[in-house]
Amino acid sequence: MATPAINIGIEEGARAEIAGGVSRVLADSYSLYLKTHNFHWNVTGPMFNSLHTMFEEQYTELATAVDEIAERIRALGEPAPGSYSEYQKLTAIPEETGNPDANEMLRQLVRDHETVARTAREVFALADEAHDEPTADLLTQRMQLHEKTAWMLRSMLE
Questions:
Q1: Is 98 helix (H, G, I), strand (E, B) or coil?
Q2: Mean pLDDT in each 10-residue stretch from start to end of the chain (158 residues)?
Q3: Count of CB atoms within 10 A of residue 48's CB?
């Protein structure tokens, strides 16, 4: 028996385009998750305890978010990317292979949270145009979270 066609009120081409954009949000989010987890493990200095705890809260939130983002891609009828090589092609988050000091970690995370917010904002326009409210809602929530997190991290640098 054939699998029923997806009929959620969004045309197939628009669904594929939106899912492609959401895949970029997923790649950015997963890359940020990995970087934040790395910084959690490797932070040192006088702010160790507060940053270690804060980074854990942030990567835990991101772990939940990547699952929700991937599930939205699936609901749109497309496969969710799930490999490092796919994420590397899709992400705008630069990889950190060194061991920066705590202030540089904060600077990078500010930049990276703002990057995810910008990616989500770009994709929001596609979702909005297609009247894809569930995706638009997800993206709105992600923008709000990443903008707030960037503000909190930036405040620690003042």
A1: coil
A2: 88 96 98 98 95 97 98 97 96 96 98 98 97 98 98 94
A3: 11
Q: Can you tell me the distance from the alpha carbon of 133 to that of 149, in angstroms, rounded to the nearest whole number?
A: 24
Task: Determine the pLDDT at residue 146.
Answer: 98
| Beta carbons within 8 Å of 114's beta carbon, 6+ residues apart | 146, 147, 150
Indicate the CATH number for domain 12-155.
1.20.1260.10
Q: pTM for this structure?
A: 0.96
Q: How far apart are CA 61 and CA 76, in angstroms?
A: 23
Question: Is the CB of residue 48 less than 8 Å from the CB of residue 156?
Answer: no
Place of tokens 């992400």: 91
Q: Where are the domains of the chain?
A: 12-155
